[in-house]
Structure formats: C-alpha cells, structure tokens
C-alpha cells in the first residue's frame, strides 16, 4: 500500500493523465493507471504536478520590511542598502522571526519549498543570524532553508566584518558569502574573495558571492572568484550571484 496516490495528473514533460504513487518521502511509481491502494488519494485531473520551485537568492532578514524606516525614493540598490543600514540597529530577533515565518508561509502556498537566503553579518550583535537560524529550525519539516553568511557592509570595510562572519559560521550558518565590489578598493575586493574562499575551503563549506551585480565595467570579481574556485578546489560548490 502506498501513502499517497495523485490520480490523472499532467506532468511538465507533456505526459497527461498520469498516476503518481508516493511511499514515504519518495515517488515510487508513475504510470497511466496504478492498480493499488493508498492511505490517501487526490484527484489531480487536469492539474499540473511539478517539482517544487527554488529561490536561489533571497534576503529573508529584510523580507516584508517595505517602508521601514522609510520608502526607497530613488528605487536604486544603493539607497536600498543605505535604508537597510538605518533599519539594522533597530532590528530584534522577535520581529525578524515573525516577518520571516510569515514570508515562508506565503512562499509555500506558491510551491516554493527551497530557499537560499543571505543573512547580514555586519552587525556584531548578529541578531539576524540568531533569528534566521531559529526560522530554519521551525520551517525544517516543510521547507529547505539554506543560510549564507553575508558581510553586507564589506568583509574588510566593516570594523568587525571578518570576526562577525566567522562567528556566524560557528553558530551554524551553511554557506560563506561576500560582496567584493562593496569593499573600499578593487584590491580589497579581490583580497576578500581570496580570504572568503579560503575560509570555505578550510571549513568544507560552499560559497555564494555577490560579485555579478555591480555596474562597474572594470570589475573583474567574477573572474577572481572563478580563479579562486579552482585554486582552493571548490569546483561545484561556488555561486556568483
């Protein structure tokens, strides 16, 4: 006996009228007609059944904060970052958890079951990290949430940037992040890529670097990240976003 059978579903490959049998947490069989019983059956006639959606780049610590502390009048990324800097000192674990859980509920209703979110580590209080780790724990039964240690104000540019990022990883954050184009100089940006990739290699962690969003035509941080990936043996574990 199966745990669940979806009857007469349409599949993304174009096959129509397919039964999908679930046993435990895995798809056990897909066929035009499954002659078996299940503890539960759902009539999916005419409905599309797909794998869950994935959000590979999000900032959940800032979710549902529109208008806090004020609106982004220019609509630019730089003003958005400045607004986050104004909001950050007022953040509490409770407020962050509440907004993030509300967002996760909304995401699941739209079929989004895997999210990679960057978590700001620039504030040495690390309330954002504490909050997102709690959210990850609570949503674990139904949503795969990955956390990226993200030095929003710069790894070197922030006084305690390096130490705060290491503490976030010690607390259980999954992935090493960075933002090289936000360092004071191109040279420091390059150095941050090297340092962060070395941390990831030493800890056996993936990397997800903000290095593909700057408008600077002279930026070479993507190439730097690619070279560091090879040098530190991180192939298959690095994203430039």
Produce the secondary structure layout.
Blueprint: E1 2-9, E2 18-23, E3 26-31, E4 38-43, E5 53-58, H1 77-87, H2 93-109, E6 112-120, H3 127-139, E7 144-150, H4 161-171, E8 175-178, H5 186-203, E9 207-209, H6 221-231, E10 238-240
Parallel strand pairs: 1-4, 5-6, 6-7, 7-8, 8-9, 9-10
Antiparallel strand pairs: 1-2, 2-3
Structure in a nutshell:
By secondary structure, the chain is α/β, with parallel strands linked by helices. The protein is built from six helices and ten strands, in the order E-E-E-E-E-H-H-E-H-E-H-E-H-E-H-E. It has two domains: 42 residues, Urease, subunit C, domain 1, CATH 2.30.40.10; 188 residues, Alpha-Beta Barrel (TIM Barrel).
Provide an overview of this structure.
- The protein is an alpha/beta fold and 241 residues long.
- It folds into two domains: 2-43, Urease, subunit C, domain 1, CATH 2.30.40.10; 53-240, Metal-dependent hydrolases (TIM Barrel, Alpha-Beta Barrel).
- Helices cover 34% and strands 24% of the residues.
- It is built from six helices and ten strands.
- The protein has helices at 77-87, 93-109, 127-139, 161-171, 186-203, 221-231, and strands spanning 2-9, 18-23, 26-31, 38-43, 53-58, 112-120, 144-150, 175-178, 207-209, 238-240.
- Helix 2 (93-109) runs parallel beside helix 3 (127-139).
- The chain is elongated, with a radius of gyration of 21 Å.
- The model has no long low-confidence stretch (mean pLDDT 95).
């Amino acid at each position: 006996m199966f745990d669940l059978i979806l009857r007469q579903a349409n599949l993304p490959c174009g096959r129509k009228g397919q039964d999908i049998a679930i046993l435990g947490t895995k798809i056990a069989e897909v066929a035009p007609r499954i002659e078996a019983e299940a503890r539960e059956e759902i009539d999916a006639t005419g409905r599309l059944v797909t794998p869950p959606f994935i959000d590979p780049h999000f900032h959940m610590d800032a979710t549902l904060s529109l208008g806090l502390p004020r609106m982004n009048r220019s609509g630019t990324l730089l003003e958005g970052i400045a607004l986050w800097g104004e909001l950050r000192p007022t953040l509490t674990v409770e407020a962050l958890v509440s907004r993030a859980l509300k967002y996760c509920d909304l995401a699941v209703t739209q079929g989004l079951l895997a999210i990679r979110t960057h978590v700001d580590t620039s504030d040495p209080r690390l309330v954002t990290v504490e909050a997102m780790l709690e959210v990850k724990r609570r949503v674990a039964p139904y949503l795969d949430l990955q956390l990226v240690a993200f030095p929003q104000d710069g790894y070197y540019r922030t006084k305690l940037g390096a130490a705060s990022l290491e503490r976030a990883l010690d607390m259980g954050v999954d992935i090493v992040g960075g933002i090289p184009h936000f360092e004071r100089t191109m040279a420091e940006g390059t150095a941050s890529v090297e340092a962060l990739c070395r941390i990831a290699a030493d800890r056996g962690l993936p990397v997800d670097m903000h290095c593909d969003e700057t408008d600077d035509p002279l930026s070479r941080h993507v190439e730097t990240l690619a070279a560091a990936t090879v040098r530190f043996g991180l192939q298959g574990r690095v994203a430039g976003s």
